[in-house]
């Protein structure tokens, strides 16, 4: 997994341009900007530091698409995308100004126009600082929240991801790899709606609930689920709940309804924060 290669059309165009100049060694990033490496150009092939089995032909870089991330498998250039008949969804890793986002069909899993996935994750975590003790991340996605929590004060992070295809995409994202290697993180491949019922009461000091939009997971916005969040949160613990606004253009603000349901589930000090586009509540 540490040998993963991930790049964009911009990286490919740079490689082609430098190779046309006759250069035999070219420095660039092949992991979406995490670091750079020097690749060798030999007889029309790019040979990265990962070795011969990861080499690929320069000619395969000529017709790549914008807003797409590519990887190398068996010397083939492949887009990091897939379609699942099980979920009837198209999954695609999409580049942004910093970390990639995941597209579920046409729906992005992060704000990346008015913000970025990195800044978006930071704002959610900052909403419930200080991060301490045991933390629950209800909807893992690409793992950014769990990884950042583990690096910023959490003793341990338990995270749920029900979709195995999302986890497959994670394995091609350089910024998701710590999800599988950080010993503080326990990843559970299960729907949190069922999985949370197996957790002991008053287990977590902090909870981040960042579910997909309500059209994908209506049950994760229900009073039944909110009561489970309240049950597993320790006294005086904090909850952050991302609050999408699907009806904002129609004059309705969904977060107001969410606040009422959270209060009905037993939460107190329930407030909406526009900067992080979320609700913070306490037990």
From TrEMBL:
Keywords: Methyltransferase, Polyamine biosynthesis, Transferase. Pfam families: MTS. InterPro entries: SAM-dependent_MTases_sf (IPR029063), Small_mtfrase_dom (IPR007848). Transmembrane segments: none annotated. GO terms for molecular function: methyltransferase activity. Residues 127-250 form the Methyltransferase small domain. One of its GO terms (biological process) is polyamine biosynthetic process. The keyword DNA-binding does not apply. The keyword Transferase applies. This is Methyltransferase. The lineage of its organism: Archaea, Candidatus Iainarchaeota, Candidatus Iainarchaeia, Candidatus Iainarchaeales, Candidatus Iainarchaeaceae.
């Amino acid at each position: 997994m540490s040998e993963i290669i991930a790049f964009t059309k911009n990286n490919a165009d740079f490689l082609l341009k430098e190779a046309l100049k006759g250069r035999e060694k070219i420095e660039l990033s092949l992991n979406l900007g995490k670091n750079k490496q020097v690749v060798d150009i030999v007889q029309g092939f790019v040979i990265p530091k990962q070795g011969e089995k990861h080499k690929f032909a320069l000619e395969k870089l000529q017709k790549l698409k914008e807003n797409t991330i590519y990887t190398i498998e068996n010397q083939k250039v492949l887009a990091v995308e897939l379609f699942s008949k099980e979920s009837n969804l198209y999954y695609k890793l999409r580049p942004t100004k910093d970390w990639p986002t995941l597209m579920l069909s046409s729906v992005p899993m992060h704000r990346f126009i008015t913000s970025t996935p990195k800044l978006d994750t930071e704002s959610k975590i900052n909403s419930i600082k200080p991060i301490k003790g045991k933390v629950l991340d209800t909807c893992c996605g690409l793992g950014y929240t769990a990884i950042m929590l583990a690096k910023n004060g959490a003793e341990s992070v338990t995270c749920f991801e029900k979709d195995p295809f999302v986890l497959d995409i994670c394995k091609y994202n350089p910024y998701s790899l710590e999800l599988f290697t950080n010993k503080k993180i326990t990843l559970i491949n299960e729907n949190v709606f069922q999985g949370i019922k197996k957790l002991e009461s008053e287990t977590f000091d902090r909870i981040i609930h960042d579910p997909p939009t309500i059209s994908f997971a209506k049950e994760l916005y229900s009073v039944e689920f909110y009561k489970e969040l309240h049950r597993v949160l320790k006294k005086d613990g904090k909850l952050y709940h991302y609050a999408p606004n699907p009806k904002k253009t129609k004059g309705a603000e969904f977060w107001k309804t969410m606040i009422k349901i959270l209060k009905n589930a037993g939460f107190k000090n329930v407030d909406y924060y526009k900067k992080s586009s979320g609700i913070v509540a306490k037990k």
